[in-house]
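Case study 2.
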Amino acid sequence: MVYHKKLIAGVAAIGMLIGTASSRAIAQETHTDMQPSTTEKAGQFQRIEQPLWAKVAVTAGGLGLIGLELWWFLLSKPQSRKATTQSGVQEVTVTVDGGYEPSQIVVQVGQPVRLNFDRKDPSSCLEEVRFPDFRIAQVLPLNQTTAIEFNPTQPGRYEFTCGMNMFRGVVEVQGADEKGAIRRVAAS
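Prediction:
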């Protein structure tokens, strides 16, 4: 402790000696004493010339990023998967990692459905999944697979969300016409 005090006192003494040895302190200079600015008009912007290739590259990069954003938010299709039927139960595994993968699930009306949610994302938003139309709210433990079962009785699109309603997915329930052929239900 004594060593630290002596070190700090020594550094302060050296600083005071250097400060008094100089003829004037820089902090006490007035604005008129300082050297004049190298620019003549300090209040205006000065144009910086750049090569044409740099202008083209920046413009092309900006347009490319705008195009990528438009594609991502407006044109990309969500991942869709049709449920596989085993022992009379339609089953799909949904990976929960920064969202739901697949985010669109296709099942048939009138058959039990089992969705296995495999949560890998530790964020608190994804620790619960909700199916409001089926009155289901299920906690999803981290690094575990949780099965959610329900039986859709009507064709349609049934949304599921995270606990904070930020991440979404859809269960599309398709019906069968009189001939037994599967028909797609239009989005409601």
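The chain is about 25% helix and 30% strand.
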